[in-house]
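Recall the central idea of this unit: under ordinary conditions, the amino acid sequence of a chain determines the structure it adopts. In this exercise we apply that idea directly, starting from the sequence alone.
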Amino acid sequence: QVQLVESGGGLVQAGGSLRLSCAASGLTFTKYAVGWFRQAPGKEREFVAAISWSGSSTDYADSVKGRFTISRDNAKSTVYLQMNSLKPEDTAIYFCAADTGPFTYYSVSEHSLTYEYWGQGTQVTVSS
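Accordingly, the structure predicted from this sequence is:
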């Protein structure tokens, strides 16, 4: 059974930092890309960042480029999202998702429908 568990969310002041973690289980012999998405109240879920299985390919939404960094430790089956210079508009529930498609060793996708497995989410609140 595949499980993705996010952690690291919380309340932080504008300009502060948080590091989110996404721990995967049930994917031991599978290569997968991981994406982070977020959903703010009253808004649709949106892409934030993604990383390929190899780690050689990453992608970011324009709104977070230069502030967020995605990385992974395959030995720990964990993907991280380092979020710096946080803004109130970053407030949302953050979800991680896994894509086990055939091209995930080197490539990533911004499209939520590409991802088969999802975590429950972790709340990030940035106060002004």
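The mean pLDDT is 96.
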